Amino acid sequence: MSTLSQWQLRAAFAARLSEMYGQEVPAYTTLVDVSREVNEDVLRARGADATRLGSISRVTAERHGAIRVGTPRELGQVARIFGALGMHPVGFYDLREAAASAVPVVSTAFRPVDGEELARNPFRVFTSMLTPADPRFFDAELRSRLEAFLADRELFPPELLALADRATAERELPQEEAERFLHLAVGAFELSAEPVDKSWYETLERISAVAADIGGVRSTHINHLTPRVLDIDELYRRMTDRGIEMIDTIQGPPAWQGPDVLLRQTSFRALAEPRAMRTPDGGVISGALRVRFGEVEARGIALTREGRARYDELLGRVDEQASQNPSASRGEIARAVWERHLPGSEQELAAKGLAYFTYHRHPDRPRDGGRPPTGVGELLRQGWVRAEPIVYEDFLPRSAAGIFQSNLSGAGTRHCDQQGTAYDADWLSGAIGRDVLDPFALYARQQNASLAHVAHELGLTGT
Ligand code: OOG
Ligand code: NI
Asked: What is the uppermost EC class here (predicted)?
C-alpha cells in the first residue's frame, strides 16, 4: 500500500490550505496570480541569476501562513500537528515590545530545518500565542475570564492529534490515514461559521483586536498565506495598478543596489467578511469582522549575528533621520543609509562575516601547484572557492509587528506603568515540550558543514 512521507504530507497540506484560502479570500488568489506573473517576468529578464536564492519551482510553491492560538496547551498541539509535517519551532519573537500599539502575543515559526527538506517544500507557519498573564494588557478579572474561556475550547479534534503523533512516530502515513489527517488539519484552520459572542468579542477588542481574534472565538483560523515573489517593488506597483489597496510601505530592508538580504514584506489590509454574531439577548444578527488579509514577501540572504546587529542599527539610523525629516521618503532615506553602511556585494558580505553562505571549491581553478590560503576572504578573492548565499528562512519581529499593526482597527490599550511578564525561547520550549531552535545556529551549521567539506577537498585540514 502506498504511503505519504512527512514532506509529502507537508507539501499536500500547504497546497490544500492554499486552495481553501483562495476560496475563502479571493483577493489572495489575485496576489498569487500577480506573484506568478512577476516571477515569470523576472526569470525571463534575469535568467539563472534570478534563482540564486531558490529554484523557480521552490519559489513558485513557497508560502508561509500565520495562525494565532491562546494557550501553551494549544501551542503544544500545534507543535504536534506541524511536527508530523516535519516542521519545527524556530526562533522566538516578542511582539509585545515591537509595536507602538498593543499586540499581546509571543511567537515562533514552525518550519523545516534541513537544507534538503527546505528544498523539497519550505512551508512555514508564523504562530503566535496570546499572553493573558501580561498585566499591561489584561487585569486580573479579564485574565481569569479569558483563561477560563480558552481552557474550555477545543481547537484540534483528538483524532487529528492522534494521526499527527502516528505520522511523527512512523515518519509517514498510509494513504487513507494521510487523507483523513489532511482533511482534519485543513478543516481546523478554516473560518468557523459558529456565531461570535458579540459582547465578549467587543470586550477583548477594547484591549486589542488581536486578543479578540484569538480569545473571542471558539476556533482558530489561518489569517493569511504569503506567496514569495522575486521582485516585490514590481509586485507592489502591479497590485496598486489593479486597484488593490496595499499598506503604504514595504517592511524590512529598502530597495537598494546591493544584494537582497533578509526579508521584505508587504500586505493588503484585512477585508470585512460577514460573520454571524450572538447578542446578549440570545439573538443572532449578521455582523462583519476584518481578520484575514493578504501578504507577499521577497527573501534574501540570511545575515549572521553581526550582520543582523548591523541591520538593527541601520533601522535605528533610518528612524532617526526619518523623524528629523518628516517630509522625506523613508524609502529614500533607508536606501541612502544602506548604501553608505552596508557592503554592496555578496563577496564583501561574505568576507566581512556579515551573511551566511555555503562554500564550494571552484571547479575550474587551475592547479598551479601553489598552496591555497587559509582564510575564507582570501580563498574567495583568489578564486579557490565560490560562495552560494543561504536564503533567510525566518521572520523579522519589527516587520511582523508592522504586519499585525496594519491590520488593527484601533490602537488598543496597554498600561505602560506595569511590568510585563517575561517570556523567552526557553520558556516557550518548556511550555510546548520541545526545543525552540535558534535560527543563527541552524544557518551557521550549514555554513560550517560546507567549510569543513571544502577545507578537506583543498587539503587544508590535517587529514
Ligand atoms: C502574524 C504577522 C507576522 C509575518 O510575515 O511577519 C507575519 C499574524 O498576523 O498573525 O506573518
Ligand atoms: Ni506573514
From this structure: oxidoreductase
Domains and CATH numbers, the chain: 3-301+393-423 (3.10.180.80)
Residue 216 confidence (pLDDT): 96
SS3 label, residue 67: strand
- Which grid cell sits at 363? 571547479
pLDDT in tens, 262-279: 999 999 888 888 999 999
Mutate to test the pocket of ligand 1, among 95, 125, 126, 232 (most ligand atoms within 8 A of CB): 126
d(CA 72, CA 407): 24
Residues with CB under 6 A from ligand 1: 66, 68, 126, 128, 223, 265, 295, 395, 399-400, 403-404
Residue 299 sits at φ, ψ, to 5 deg, of: -105, 145
Beta carbons within 8 Å of 179's beta carbon, 6+ residues apart: none
In angstroms, how far is CA 216 from the centroid of its own chain? 24
Atom of ligand 1 nearest to the CA of 395: 6
Nearest CA to ligand 1 atom 9: 404
- Cell 523539497 sits at which residue? 120
Nearest to 74 by CA among 174, 198, 173, 217: 217
Q: How far apart are CA 229 and CA 38, in angstroms?
A: 7
To the question of pTM greater than 0.90 for the whole model, the response is yes
Q: What is the pLDDT of residues 47-89, one digit of tens each?
A: 888 888 988 888 998 999 999 999 999 999 999 999 999 999 9
